[in-house]
Amino acid sequence: MIPPLLQVEDLHVEFATRRGRVQAVRGVSLDLLPGATLGIVGESGSGKSVTAYAVTRLLDRAGRISSGRILFRDQDLTRASEGDMRALRGGAISMIFQNPRSALNPIRSVGRQLMDALGAHQDLSGRERRDRALDLLRDVLIRDPERRFEAYPHELSGGMCQRVMIAMAVACDPALLIADEPTTGLDVTTQKTVMDLLARLTAERNMGMILITHDLGLAVQYCGDVAVMQEGQVVERAPAATLFRAPRHAYTRRLVAASPTPRSTVQDLVGEPPRPPPPPRPQAAGTPLLLEVRDLVKRYAGFAAVDGVSFSIRPGESLGLVGESGSGKSTISRLICRLIDRSEGTILFDGQDVGGIPARDFHANPLRREIQIVFQDPHDSLNPRYNAFDCIAHPLKRMLGLRDGAKLRARVEECARRAGLPTELLTRFPHQLSGGQKARIGIARAIAARPKLLVLDEPTAALDVSVQAVILKLLDDLRREEGLAFLFVSHDLNVVRMMCERTIVLQQGRIIEEGDSRALFAAPCADYTRELLAAIPHFDPAPALAG
Amino acid sequence: MRALRAVGRRVGRRLVASAPALLGVVVFTFLLMRVLPGDPAVFFASGPNAGQEEIDELRRVLGLDRPIPVQLAHYLYDVGTGNLGRSLTTGQPVLRDLTERLPASLELTVTALILALGLALPLGILAALRPGSLLDHGVRLVCSLGVCVPTFVSGLLLIYVFYVVLGIAPDPTGRLDIFAASPPDITGFLLVDFLLVGDMEGWRAAAAQLVLPAATMALFTLAPLARMTRASMLAVLGSDFVRTAKSIGLGRGRVVLVYALRNALLPVITITGIVFSTMLGANVLVEKVFSWPGVGSYALDALLGSDYAPVQGFVLLMASAFVIVNLVIDTLYGIADPRVSIE
């Protein structure tokens, strides 16, 4: 029997807040064998990151381990001195963080930071440290390490920064690596390279790894065991394969169901019986297209972010735009919304040329109310000084000239109901609402003026999967009932497949592939699309569960 | 090399860009002086009984009878050729007056700034390392006092305590005791000149004269520097990359000094530039209290005497100083922060 590398026993962590003490972790017990991998999965606020920071004792000033033990090689870390912890950090336990660019010192070259990491635990000469640092850069597959050595974090891509971070973490051969959402915010193909690299390095060096993530697919694919956390407690722990094939706890079951898979439908996510896809609307011959885009080009300082894109949307149709960061999908959505001006090309909306209207004048155009947008960040896209009612009422006042108090109130409440926002929450301000509730305000605001086209720019990217499931369901219902057309922008291919009848795949501002969603995902033609699909971490719950 | 070239380009661009601003300052002060009440001819006429004829004659000699655009054109031509006019009070060319007095002001300001930075940085860092502690509150108190008390009050207070009561400070008048021998005029900075000729006794005497006025000014500028250091240090200490530095096991000193402080200093550099420029012009009161023969008191005297040329010269000097200080700050910033070089 090998003794475990790490053993967390009945850990409690509390935070001092303005409203008194808050228990973030309530009695977590975990263990990890040397060289094993454990995934900790949970939604925001479940305490998964706090647990990791407690292990390395890097909690913020307000956080405190109130009880429990953390045994690392039989040493209780909750009682270790700051000096002992310093020797352990980096030397025996390393961490990798979310948002790699801000995790690196912006004014120190990455090579020097690597040398710092090496120098923290090993007595090496400057020359040796430099050579070792270059070796490490090579190990994490950074091309041309001599040149990258002198680079600053802002000169590297997010994926490269994360690889540098990995190099720093493994520099002194720790026995345990804790990766806290290491690929959140990275593109799906970058995520795959980073995760494959992590898996290979930890296996080669026989390091134990704890992967903290909100993405079930990722945890299943890269971890032996998975623990599911909810509200500061581990509700279930099992080998990855069995956990998702036969989840025992109700929360795990809900989480598994809410995660989009290559076969799920929007109704599956929230556990409802599937509905047939909306029947194609009877189109009278000669009905104009709702939106027609021809040879659209947008240049920034000579660089074409959107490079000759043409597509069309029929009334009531849902079109998906997928692609990685820099593919131009957000630029296209802003061009269609007339928030920025095109460089070339035409945009016809309902047969009228709207591309020629300058973006700064479009707000006064009667067509403004026909094209509305739902933004990516539900929090930052709301005015913090407006309560929910004002947010929804604003477009009504501006675009419909609705001033009458009773009528305005009635319409706002109707929109809120349509978006599933309880009317008693209308007096609250954004900071008093949850992410899902704020997303509902954004949707209610967008549908308030009864638009014909709704542009959704990654509407669920910032939400937890269970909230995402509910919001996707809401959007799908809205579309069926109100006859809205969607331009749905997302980096999540499974979401686009569920939400859209047709899909466009973009790469570097050009359309790579276009077609019926189901056909396109079942049999992609372009290599790039295949690559994107292959990079999605996937797991397959047993078919019995899908119903 | 790449960074140096980028810095050079930025400096060049800034110099070119500052020319219109300087021209604007020159024209504006010129017009301002003309619309301010007070007629230099009346002021400099032989006495209150001077007749209208004498005044008119003076106005003709001074060129004040010509239309303002013509006066402005003449003035601009003079400034362009390096002639800032002649002071009616001292009877000397303004340029010479300013070059004689500028080193005194600079010496005082630079010493005060070094003193202020030497105090503010450690205090700000310590306060940020222990927010909410007794030390933090102490620093806040000292800073508040420094800002609340006007410089002429704190100056007089320091004179009272160290000269009158304790008697350890020298007579607080001027840059050097009247009986002491001044060094040969090499740079105009007494401390430097004494060092150059190796006169350590003189150096000590000059330094002793400098301590009180410099301390007075330093007290006043302590607050913005210390508060900025604390705030920016707090922000950086809570940042992701400091957490990374801790997570790889770097020692506390290295985390605080190399990772946190170097980043936290970036905004402090900017504030230091602003503080320095302000001090240079705003130390009039300190110069008056300590009879310091600097440019500030010179310009104030000229202003009260409706003496146009020195005031215009002083404003131009201050504007140029602002431009140069900003340039230096920008250059420093460009070297300290590699992200700035991308445009």
UniProtKB/TrEMBL annotation, chain B:
Its main location: membrane. InterPro entries: BPD_transp_1_N (IPR045621), MetI-like (IPR000515), MetI-like_sf (IPR035906). The keyword Transmembrane helix applies. It is found in: Cell membrane. Residues 102-333 form the ABC transmembrane type-1 domain. The chain crosses the membrane at residues 15-36, 108-129, 141-166, 206-226, 264-286, 314-336. It comes from the Bacteria. PANTHER family: DIPEPTIDE TRANSPORT SYSTEM PERMEASE PROTEIN DPPB-RELATED. Belongs to the binding-protein-dependent transport system permease family. This is ABC transporter permease. It comes from Neoroseomonas eburnea. The lineage of its organism: Bacteria, Pseudomonadati, Pseudomonadota, Alphaproteobacteria, Acetobacterales.
